[in-house]
Amino acid sequence: MSLDPVQVMSGQVKELKVVPSSNGDSRGSWEEKEEIDQDNVGITTKPKPVTGRRTRKVEGGVFFPKPENAVTVAVSSRVLFRTEREQKVFEQDGVEEYLRFQIEHENEPFTPGPAFPFVKALEAVNCRLRELYPQSEELFDIVLVTYNHAHVGIRLINTINHHNLFIERFCMTGGSSPIGYLKAWQTNLYLSADADKVREALSEGIAAATMFTSEKVTEVSESQLRVAFDGDAVLFSDESERIFKAHGLDKFFEHERDNEDTLLDHGPLKGFLEALGKLQKKFYAKGQRLDCPIRTYLVTARSAASSGIRALKTLRAWGLEIDEALFLAGAPKGPMLEKIRPHIYFDDQMFHVEGAAEMGTVAAHVPYGIAQKHNAKQNISVRK
């Protein structure tokens, strides 16, 4: 199986059930015929809007948190929605024909892409947070980042309204790099189909991953955001991976035993796990630890007895509580991820990303560390 962020696998996209977001009802119609009048507790009949734009309501919450207070997730339009037809027009006919095509079809919504269930889950968590902390700005804040020209903005807005997403912040760069804007937004995570831009973001210290569209999609939780992480070169540095690549498995085990009390350095997605943990603690403070709508997983090919203790000690020293840790000792990750059913899984090796995708998991590649210098087929190890 080969995944490509531009070439989409054949097959139907499964419509996932999601918790209605707090900005309106969950109807998918372009046309809103009735609107609840919350002040007069009645129903007001309104004419059909020309563009299909929807009225947004958020009860008891902050609409636009400041970037420094929010957990900002920047998502490209090519992973939030399926745009392979439009991408083909761009590649075959050029930018002018592409813009004309987008304008002609601006009243046709894009269908959900691989990041769509993840974004809906973020909105579901926001709904719970607003219930507990009506005035808090500590929420997920979603920014749509796209290389598109502003002319495409109308279709994107129509699509967002159609799917009842609460995304008000756009960066439409017209072909320019978005990395500077990501830094201005104080982005905690950037998801894109463009591996080069993901690498550029990582080089600037921004947590980022490349997402792919697969032919198989597993249904995910409607009420709990589930995020799974690999260990080395994702949450941790690639220090141990380098030992393994250079000297083999025995030296790796020896190195981990000798250094079990030495903390691993941080990897590119440590900060995002910290951000998730910060929001989890807001639920714990209200006595909702057992009913927390965020759950995190460490899924690693490390073995527990031989090399797991250093990873766990590092997480503890960082003050991070991972909810579940799976030490697979080289067993395939795909079957375990199929049971977890995360909204997203992060791994630095394409071998594991492809294996997860074959089982229906939305997996994202973190192009970081020594593994990027090896062919994907050589990335099978019994310890990572």
Cα-to-Cα separation, first versus last residue: 21 Å
Category from helices, strands and their pairing: alpha/beta
Largest sheet descriptor: 10 strands, mixed
Low-confidence stretches: 1-62, 375-384
How many helices?
13
Order of strands in the sheet with most strands: 7-6-3-8-9-14-13-10-11-12
What is the rounded Rg? 21 Å
Keywords:
384 residues; alpha/beta; 10-stranded mixed beta sheet; two-stranded antiparallel ribbon; 13 helices; 14 strands; globular
Q: Could you explain how this protein is built, in words?
A:
This protein has 384 residues and is α/β, with parallel strands linked by helices. It has 13 helices and 14 strands. The strands form 3 sheets. The chain has a 10-stranded mixed beta sheet with strand order 7-6-3-8-9-14-13-10-11-12. A two-stranded antiparallel sheet has the order 1-2. Helix 8 packs antiparallel against helix 9 and helix 12 packs across helix 13. The two termini are 21 Å apart.
